[in-house]
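Figure 2 data, in text form.
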Amino acid sequence: MKPVPVLKQGSFSGRRALWAGGIAVLYLAFAAAGGLFLGSEALSTHLGSRNLAPSLEHLFGTDWLGRDMFTRTVKGLGLSMAVGFLGAISSSVIAAVVGLLAATMGRAVDRFLSWLIDLFLSVPHLVTLILIAFVCGGGLKGIVIGIACTHWPSLARVIRAEVMQLRSAEFVLVSQRLGKSRLWIAMHHMAPHLVPQLLVGMLLLFPHAILHEAAITFIGLGLSPHQPAIGIILSESMRYLSTGMWWLAFFPGLCLLFTVRAFGTFGELMKRLVDARGLHD
């Protein structure tokens, strides 16, 4: 008798989530592709256009070398998203392997990998990421390796719990009775069921990867200062905020916040769709 209002409310919430997800996708597509269509001429030095406030000609103003901040910001977002993409994919692969091994290779392996997951979760991501990036020499390689090695534990725990449930499924028990190996069962039965969780987990890892990339680059252990990364832009702008050039940090920081929020919104939408599909099945 009361399902009708509940369905209406859920339908409205679902439409709102779809609208938010669509807007997030459009923004992310613009941020990813914008750097490809914008020319590099605006990144060159124009001393006659130094320190200009935001205007119709320069939407985000210009910096102390006359470079257009809108172009620098858009290209920096594209670079940060590429680094986050590499780090999130690498971390998701590690999480999938660890989760599958923990749930299928016996109690001893499960206890060791669970202890390893708890160990990584007990240390702040940023501290471990700084150490790994420093050991690897910084740069793109150091950031990607650091993100991959520090962002997998939470997703690995989710994958492990999902595999634990799949172990009691009828088709898995039948394969065990037929003499199939653990590796065969993991690759043919469990891995296909984990693809939606891995995709959602990777999308939810993106915001953390992008923020941590910007943080590492901000302190000088990340990308090269010659690359228009958001962390570099924010780091350089700190020297000019006291002179009133607020736009050097405000617009890049705001765009970074929007990018992180857009990835979070899109990831939450995909999570709801996967959960709804699971309930339907």
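Caption note: Residues 182-218 form the longest helix (37 residues).
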